[in-house]
Amino acid sequence: MAHLPPPLRREASQNEIDRLRDAPESPWRTRSAREAYRNPWLAITEYEVTRPDGLPGLYGVVDPGDNVTIVALTDDEQVWIVEDFLYTLQARGWTLPTGAMDSSEEPVEAARRELLEETGLRAANWLELGAFYLSPGITTQRSYLFLARELTLGAHQREGTEAGMTAHTVPLREARDTSIHSPTANAVTALGLQLTWNHLHGAS
Asked: What gap in Å lies between CA 164 and CA 7, rounded to an integer?
C-alpha cells in the first residue's frame, strides 16, 4: 500500500521529462508527453511517439512507483505470508508482505517499514535478492526483493485498507510449490520464494 501519497499535480514529472530523452539506440522517438491521469497512488503518462516502423503513435506508461517484497523466514524455514481480499481480482489471496516505497526511502528502509506494518515483524538480518521490473511493456515499476531473517514478532501497524489482512507462517517448500498453482498466483511472490530456496538449497 502507498504509505505517503504524492500530491495531486498535472505538470510533467522528472520521470516524464527524462523519457523525452530517448536512448541513442532506441528505435522509438518521443515527441511530447502529457499526464493523462493521476490519483494519490499512480500516474499515467501518454507519449506521442514515432514508432519503429516510422508511423506516428501513442504510448501509455503507468507509474505507481517502485515497491518492495519481503521473504521473512524463521530459523526452521517457515515463511511469513499475508492473506487479504484483492480488490482487482475480486478474490481473497495470499502473497509475501509487500508495499510501495516512499520517494525518500531506500529500498531496505521501505522493506523494514512494510514488514512491520503488515506482520509486526522486525528482522536483524537483511539480504537483497534482486530488483525486477514487473511489467516493462506498460510500467516503469520495479519490485525490490529481500530475504529477512532473525525475526522478532510484535504488533502490526496495518492501514485501514488492510483491516481484513491476516498473517501466518507456512513451510518454505510448501509456499514455494503452491505459489505457482494458486488461482491468485503472484509473480513476485513466486519469484521471491524460488530465489530464497535457491539461496539456501541451490537451484533445483
From this structure: 27
The pTM score is 0.85
Our CA dihedral for 158, 161, 163, 165, rounded to 10 degrees, sits at -80
Give the sign of the dihedral formed by CA 107, CA 112, CA 117, CA 121.
positive
DSSP-assigned letter for residue 18: H
Residues with Cβ within 8 Å of 164's Cβ and at least 6 positions away in sequence, in order, are 84, 85
CB 35: neighbour CB atoms within 10 A?
A: 16
Mean pLDDT by runs of 10 across the 204 residues of the chain is: 38 61 91 92 93 96 95 98 92 94 92 95 97 93 97 86 87 95 90 96 80
Q: 90: which strand partners? A: none
* Cβ contact 126:108 at 8 Å: yes
Q: In what order do the strands lie in the sheet with 29-38?
A: 29-38, 43-50, 56-63
Query: What three-state secondary structure class fits 69?
Result: strand
Q: For the chain, what percentages of helix, strand and coil (3-state, to nearest 5) are there?
A: 20, 40, 40
Q: Which helix (H) or strand (E) holds 44?
A: strand 43-50
